[in-house]
Amino acid sequence: MTEFRRFTHALRSSSAEDLGEFLGGNLKSLTEEEALAVLANRYVTPQICQSIAQSQRLTAFYSVRLRLVEHRSTPQAHAVKLVHYLHWPDLVRLSVDMRVSPAVRRAIETQLLLRIDNLSAGEKIASAKRCSAALIKVLLFDPDPRVFSALLVNQRVREDDLLLIAGSDRATTEKLQLIAADRKWSSRYGVRRALVMNPRTPRSVAASQLRFLSNRDLHQILRHPATSVYLRRCIERLRPALID
Length: 244
Hints:
- By secondary structure, the protein is mostly helical.
- The chain has two domains: about 1-120; about 175-244, no CATH class.
- The protein has 18 helices and no strands.
- It starts with a helix and ends in a 6-residue tail after the last helix.
């Protein structure tokens, strides 16, 4: 370990008194590595974070901006301002990091929503796998089925999200097929019902869900004017008692 690395390591673990003494004479001349070491110290205060955030020289370093945004001790106004200067992958990561303050996460989500139309397909796919609820609501309706497929592995996706798309006239056949083939979601009763009700669901997929539905729902589907003749016949064969 070099002398400088030993110094920054000591700075990270120094006491509150030693940290204050060091900053008292060196704040204006901090290097990027020293600023990061200070921000990693357990005794760093909001006042120290503010002083670093107010230094244009230090915030010119991306690593310092990033650390200030994610640090709970950074005053909210400064953290929110610096959000605008972060890269997309870091914004996605921080948007679901519960260590980041709620107000800052909201500012991050605003930036994500503003930038999403400028993303490449690959960026959308990567983001869909781990993004927050706000971004999920938008990516659900992305026309690229690969993005939707990536969303299905996102642990933050909820059944209500899938019901929103499965019950929509904006749902494509590809997306409905992906839902029906998904091992986690395809067994949910509400999802099965939504698949049957959506006229864009391939008829073989819709028919395969009928045996899992209640008589009440089958009766409603049977009487619905948008139900295809094929599904009506399937229901009639499956539950003859439902026929008047």
